[in-house]
Specification:
homodimer; Aspartate Aminotransferase, domain 2; Aspartate Aminotransferase, domain 1; 7-stranded mixed β-sheet; two-stranded parallel ribbon; 34% helix
Chain lengths: 362, 362
């Protein structure tokens, strides 16, 4: 069976060489006589794996020493609660500001409302989330405990290309669908977190990068397992971490370093997205509904404007080996998620297929 | 490299045939053209995997229809908070009774104290947890929202062989280190939960089996991700579940069914434990410190009474391919964790090695 071009929004494609390495050592890792899945997380062998994964991620993202890197569980959705539980008492106001740029930002905001005084300072809901909201910094609260954004909005195919200026208020960003896809200056964030299942590895690992002054402020009701400080003090091993997922993430980090790191990925991703968006801008059949300046590098949405035609396209594409192109159920249409592991070749071939489909459906 | 005999308490040995099957299909699952790790959790292909895993587990454990089976994240330690967050308002008293049979029961009890009126109704702390506590049912509170036990105490090598009679109060059991090792009557429990990394699969999956009348009572402060009802309604896919870990668990379930199910495992485990305990009872060097009636089938602890000799034994055993025999740091000595995946041959060879060590160290 040939590998398909998998445009899934997540879980999504992993680099073939990463999968092949994992396959080779699945039953027996090195000279250990066991699978990584069978290793005690307290063993020296496993510590080498997790600490190397962290070191490689620090190198890839240029993470300063005053930031902790945590490997947690529960995905971004768990962070929607974990962030307010840990930060809402940081400066004792219990306030946080949110930009509502889509479904996941909205869910995060709703969840935070259980725990504090939450303000939506900008929203693009009225535009169907087809753009990043325009914001007015005068509406930001200077005494908020944190300020929250979702950097890349997977469902709609939008991304922040500049950051809101929040002054001394720590900026918290969900970078689940853009981590390692382009260079970010981590020092601009108080917390940046990401579920692994897009650019990192299998689902079940959440990466949390947190500035160390934000540790130690958890509300009393915070479960121990959701207390960032506890996890930071225990190097993410307060209890058994998702050992195999972290190992897979480490393989991806090694692969990215071998490919020139995030700078090289960013250049490739810009070119990959350009090929697809250029076609969408030319096409008479397909078009991208997003405000141009806000277009995502990772998720390109497109529609024909005719639901039957959309469905026919998805069906034909699937049969041709371009799978998971159906848009999110909440918006319909199509979406090509083109994370780091999607080769340029996959996009070139998809565009050729779309051109042919367009010619056949005039 | 030959496989070692891995006596780790968890993560621990998995059946070789399970690992080999996972290896074979790691890069490409069936005709899918992708790895299981790359599959959208919303795809039909993945739904088949997770629903079959659930069906097989239901068959293995004879789980009735009025119980939900959830695949969650965070390990047993997350359940220490999740149980009180979901049950402490079930009958509106906010009370729960705990039996303190060891470190993990104690941690669970401490965590629950954040959320309600928690009573320790029995403890074996004074005995160094070398036995299951004797209990007096008159001390149990009839109006408690739940009653909590840890069925098998990994660190000390003890297990409950009978259940406390709690009347109408739902019994909640941490079965992390004994799930699928012997037959349990699930109808005796309100909730039984287990981290996967002992008898099921890789770390990062938590199995929660919950009677459906216990759903829907979560405290307001409960994070959405920790609300059993939300996860039950969404078949564990409120957000992206740990897809690969669940797939691996499913492979183990298939394997167990092919081996005759839990009844067959129980017979094998009784025999495996007998071989080891019989030797420990005869040995002049090694002895098992646990009250005989409470001995675990899964974790057999033993000591020489001399810390230097213990260390020398662990070192020699490791060199001979019997690894991870060091006892938990809190109790010292040795521990052989002999979960389902440990073949009888591993125990026979370990006993032979111990006999030789004893002869050499007279």
């Amino acid at each position: 069976m040939n590998r398909v071009y998998n445009f899934s929004a997540g879980p999504s494609m992993l680099p073939l060489s990463v999968l092949e390495k994992a396959q080779k050592e699945l039953v027996c890792y090195g000279e250990s006589g066991m699978s990584v899945m069978e290793m005690s997380h307290r063993s020296k062998m496993y510590e080498e794996i997790i600490f190397k994964a962290e070191a490689d991620l620090r190198q890839l993202m240029n993470i300063p020493e005053n930031y902790k890197v945590l490997f947690l569980q529960g995905g971004a959705s768990m962070q929607f609660a974990q962030v307010p539980l840990n930060l809402l008492s940081a400066y004792q106001t219990g306030k946080a500001d949110y930009i509502n740029s889509g479904n996941f930002a909205n869910l995060a905001m709703k969840e935070a409302k259980r725990y504090g005084d939450i303000k939506e300072v900008a929203s693009s809901k009225a535009q169907g989330y087809s753009q990043i909201p325009d914001w007015d910094e005068k509406k930001f609260r200077a005494d908020a405990d944190y300020f929250y954004i979702c950097m890349n909005n997977t469902i709609y195919g939008t991304r922040f290309t500049k950051l809101p200026q929040t002054g001394n208020v720590p900026l918290v960003a969900d970078i689940s669908s853009c981590i390692l896809s382009q260079e970010y200056d981590i020092t601009k964030f108080g917390i940046a977190f990401a579920g692994a299942q897009k650019n990192v590895g299998p689902a079940g690992v959440t990466i949390v990068i947190i500035r160390d002054d934000l540790l130690g402020h958890a509300l009393d009701i915070t479960p121990t397992m959701l207390n960032y400080q506890v996890m930071a003090e225990k190097d993410s091993m307060y209890n058994t971490p998702p050992t195999y997922g972290i190992y897979m993430a480490g393989l991806t980090f090694e692969y990215l370093l071998s490919q020139g790191g995030v700078k090289a990925m960013e250049q490739r991703n810009i070119e990959k997205a350009r090929i697809l968006y250029d076609f969408l801008d030319e096409s008479k059949l397909f078009h991208n509904p997003v405000r141009k300046c806000d277009r995502s590098l990772m998720n390109a949405t497109f529609v024909t404007g005719d639901a039957d035609k959309d469905a026919a396209f998805v069906k034909a594409a699937t049969a041709a080996g371009f799978v998971n192109l159906k848009g999110h159920r909440s918006v319909g249409g199509m979406r090509a998620s083109i994370y780091n592991a999607m080769p340029e070749e996959g996009i070139v071939k998809l565009v050729a297929f779309m051109k042919q489909f367009e010619a056949d459906n005039k």
